[in-house]
Structure formats: structure tokens, C-alpha cells
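The protein record reproduced below.
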Amino acid sequence: MGHKVLILGEKESFIIKILVKKLGDSGIESVFSTYDEGKIKELWDEISVITFCEEDGKDLPGEVKAFVENNLGNRRIIPLQKPIDYEAYIASINSDDSQDSAGDKKKILIVDDDPNYMSLVREWMVNDYKVSMVTSGARAIKWLGSNKADLVLLDYEMPVTSGLEVLETLRADDEMKELPVIFLSGNDSQESIRSVEHLNHQGYFLKTMPKDEFLNKIKVFFMEEAE
């Protein structure tokens, strides 16, 4: 079964028209939609690849982003990056891998004092990402001092050095102040969520989040980072 690409954008721009033609010339079916949730839902079962063609870098509308995160399944997100290399883009569509290559896997560090939960999350992600784990905030800071990560999944509640304290330390370091961090927590209180708002984090995931929703949110995060 061939791929069918859903291209999303505010309008059918000149770049999108070129993309549709080049996909057609390569034997790949595609369809364009604005950020119309109803139309996207109608097309959803037919498509295997989603391309977000966001030229001005704005976030997706909230209801569309939520739908994609919760229903991504086996569909792949392949962003259209500038400068556009159409041959590389089409090659990535024809690839069976969700990442460009094994060597290019995104690096994720999980920081959690619960080894059972940490191991579970690692098993969810290990096929698509290069995953490392540490069991305390102090070890996370030490690990990040000599290793690179594309994303840190940080337990909010840990003994000795809490997730909040870890992030404060990272944000005070010039080399790590922009490092993407998503909190993991079993606490959904508004007080806990508000306590980290000033620290420029990239999300707050509840540990009760189902596997598919968790993985979809990680995929969408990296898609938006690539824009």
C-alpha cells in the first residue's frame, strides 16, 4: 500500500502547490487541508504521513494539535523544512523508518527516582529514540555536564534534589538554559503546574498518561522543534 500525505497549512501557498506536484510526479498521493478539524478527521483514515507546512513558525491551533497528538497511531510526521530539499523529503516519505537513520535518533534523558516507571517509559521509546536514564536530580546534572540530550523527561517530585531544583540549575547554566525539558508527575494540581511556569519548560506530562498519547506528544514535540 502506497503512502498518502496530508499537507496542512493556513492556505494553499505556492510552496504547497510545488510540493503537491513533486509528490505526484514521484507517484505519491497527497491532499491539502487548512486547519479545519472536521476536514482533517474526514481524511484521517486515508493518510499515513502528515506534513505541517507552517511557514511563519506559529503553533498549530489547539484543537488540531490535540487531535493529532491523541490519534497519531502509526502515522508519521515529516516536517517540511527550509531550505526545502524535495528529494530528501520524498526519500523520507518512502523510508519505513520514523527517524532519518539509526545514527540520527533523538537523544532523550529520563530522570526519575522510580526505576520501574523509568524502565517502562524507556521500553516505550527505545525503538525510536536513544534513551538514557538516571535516578536522581544530582546525577542528571552531572550527566548533562558531559553528555548531550535533545530532550529531558524530568520527574517533578524527587527526594534531595527535586525536578524543580534541577530545572532551576539548568536554566542558570548558559550552555543548558535552552535545553528542552518536559516534567513527569503524578500530581495534577494547579499549584504544582503553576510552580514551574516561570522556568521555560516544554510540557507537564502526568504519569498516568497512556502509552499512545505519551508517544504521540513526544513525536509532536520533535516535529515542532524541527520547524
Remarks:
- Strands lie at 4-8, 29-33, 49-52, 76-77, 107-111, 130-134, 151-155, 181-185, 203-206.
- Residues 49 and 76 are 5 Å apart (CA to CA).
- The longest helix spans residues 211-226.
- Confidence is low (pLDDT under 50) at residues 97-102.
